[in-house]
Amino acid sequence: MTSLTIRRPDDWHLHLRDGAMLEGVIADTSRHFARAIIMPNLVPPVVTVADAEAYRERILAALPKGDRFQPLMTLYLTEHTDPDDVEKGKTSGLITAVKLYPAGATTNSHGGVRDLDKAMPVLERMAKIGLPLCVHGEVTTPEVDIFDREAIFIDTVLDPLRRRLPELKVTMEHVTTSDGIDYIRGAKSNLAGSITTHHLIINRNAILVGGIKPHYYCLPVAKRESHRLALRAAATSGDSRFFLGTDSAPHVDPLKECGCGCAGIYTSINTMSCLAHVFEEDGALDTLEAFASLNGPAWYGMAPNEDTITLVKRETPVAYPAKIETGAGPVTVFDPMFPLHWAVDNDGF
Ligand code: DOR
Ligand code: ZN
Asked: Does the pLDDT at position 204 exceed 90?
C-alpha cells in the first residue's frame, strides 16, 4: 500500500504550554489533528473553569489563520478543587476531563494530589455527571523503583479507586507496561487507555545505551522491550479501549540537555508518519484509523471527524526538521531512529 486515507485524527493527550512555546508548537498539531485534550500542567496550573476558559482563548488566538482546531480543556485536580466549579465546566461544555497528577509524579505536578481521599467529593461528582478522569498512573513513593511505578499504581491506587467508584470513567493515560494493557483489557467497563507514539517505538535502551539520551526521556519512562511489544499489540489490535494520546511535551533544549533534564518528548510534528510506519511494520495499516481517529472520540462520547487526511508513502525519506525553533528556544523533534517514508499529503514536509 502506498496511500491511506483515514478520518482526521485527534490527539487525546497533548501539552501545548503557553506564551512563546504555545505559539511555536501549535501549528504542528493543528496541521494534522482536529481536536486535542490539552494538559493543564502550566505554571501555575489550570485549576478552575475560569483558568481553563482563559487558556482556551490563548490557544485559539495562537492558531494559524484558517485552522479549525478545537482544544478540549481539562482541569488540574487538587485537594481543593470545587465540585460545583467542575460541574459548571462540564455543563457549559468547556471541560472534557479532569486530570489527576499524583503530587511529584512529573513536570509541574507538585500542586497535584497527595491524599486521594481529599479529592473524593470531586471524583464522586464526576462519576455522577459522567465527566472522565484522566490519570497519570504512577506512584511517587521514593522506595518504589521508577520502572515499577505504573504497575504499583494500578494495584494500590487505581484499582481501589475504581472499586470504590465503579461509575467513574477513567482514562489511563500514556500506558507504558503490559500490566497497564492487561488491566484495561480485564476491565468490564469505564476504563480505557491512551498510548503515545514514542512508547510504541522506543524501549529503555534508547535512553541509556551508548550514553544518556535526554531526548528519549519522558514520564512514565519507557520500559523494557516486552512492554513495548504489549503496547504495539494493543494499539494495532483495533480494540476500542486503546487510542492515541501523543503526550507530545515540548521543552527547550537547554532544559533537556543538562544535569537534571526535564521529562518530555516532542512528537506532534511527525506522529502520523511514525504511526503509519509502526502500523505498516505490524501489518496493521487497516487499524490505524481506529487507533488515531475513531476509538478516542467514541470513548469521549464525540462524533469522529468528518474530514480526512491522506498518508502517502514516498521513495525518499520525509525531511522533518531535527529541531523546531520557537520564541522560547529550540525544541528537538522525536527521532524514531529509522527513516520515515510515510508523509501526510500536502503538509509541506
Ligand atoms: O514526559 C512527560 N512530560 N510526562 C509528563 O507526564 C509531563 C510532561 C510534561 O509536561 O513535560
Ligand atoms: Zn503528559
From this structure: yes
Mean pLDDT throughout 50-77? Answer: 97
How many whole angstroms separate alpha carbon 279 and alpha carbon 292?
A: 11
Indicate if ligand 1 lies below 6 Å from the C-beta of 15: yes
The answer to whether 307 is a known catalytic residue is no
107 close to ligand 1 (CB < 6 Angstrom)? yes
Ion ligand 2, residue ranges at CB < 5 A: 247
- Dihedral sign for Cα 51, 252, 145, 11, please: positive
pTM: 0.98
Atom index in ligand 1 nearest the CA of residue 39 equals: 10
The verdict on the CB of residue 21 being under 6 Å from ligand 1 is: no
The residue whose CB lies within 8 Å of the most ligand 1 atoms, and thus the one to mutate among 11, 14, 15, is 15
Give pLDDT tens digits for 147-193: 999 999 999 999 999 999 999 999 999 999 999 999 999 999 999 99
CATH label of the domain that carries residue 155: 3.20.20.140
Q: How many domains does the chain have?
A: 1
**Residue 333 belongs to a domain:** yes
pLDDT at 107 over 90: no
Ligand 1 centroid from CA 329, angstroms: 18
List all residues 6 or more positions away from 176 whose beta carbon is below 8 Å from its beta carbon.
150, 199, 220, 221, 222, 223, 227, 231
